[in-house]
Design a protein that fits this description.
Rossmann fold, alpha/beta, disordered N terminus, two-stranded antiparallel ribbon, binds flavin mononucleotide, 8 strands
Amino acid sequence: MAASLRAGSLLLNNGTMSGSTTAVRCSSTEAPSIVRVAAIAGSLRKGSVHQGLIRAAIEVSKDIPGLEVEHVKIDKLPFLNTDLEVNGRFPDEVEEFRASIQKADSILFASPEYNYSMTAPLKNAIDWASRSPNCWADKPATIISAGGGFGGGRSQYHLRQVGVFVDLHFLNKPELFVKAFEPPAKFDAQGNVIHEETKQRIKSLLIALQNWTLRLNNDGSGKL
Ligand SMILES: Cc1cc2nc3c(=O)[nH]c(=O)nc-3n(C[C@H](O)[C@H](O)[C@H](O)COP(=O)(O)O)c2cc1C
């Protein structure tokens, strides 16, 4: 990412900048600012609605200039066991996962609620990438979840707590909790999002994450 951003300015969805002082437009001679988002689903099952939420995020991101969402899979990661770290090297699947997190500008978690918390596969992935050097450090992040009455909200708040120690910077608002079991239907049998309003809310969340990422990286270096 190679755009120079003024302090307090935000990249809008139409490619313009707005800030607390004068609004400016990115010069056409500058390289486009691409925010690369690594999206992680905490459920491994085939018909997972959380994987469906990520597919929807990828779909709607195509209408957001300067944003790319990549689904980073966690199903091949072994259970964390520090005995698997040999001579400073992690198992190949872990190295690959860590590299995907390291190269991302920000993180989108699709975090199911299991017994009032996040899932074991998601916590396992977070723990692997937290091993030194911590791949999460200083990354902006946000969460989507779907579930019962609270739409998976309790998993989100546990995840935010873990984010304090691994040094993620979670977006405060908007929050997105999808009530998966209440009408109208939000998902089909394969876990695809079929509810237009949910797609629009995912889009708003991604735009807010994009702005948050640019704002946090606005250190004058011109780099993400
Ligand atoms: C072990 C287990 C515990 C669960 N606990 C909760 C819970 O505490 N709160 C909730 O809203 N849903 C709970 N659920 C339901 C899941 O959150 C729900 O089925 C969700 O759709 C799973 O995500 P997925 O479709 O991406 O796999 C639980 C499901 C399982 C398998």
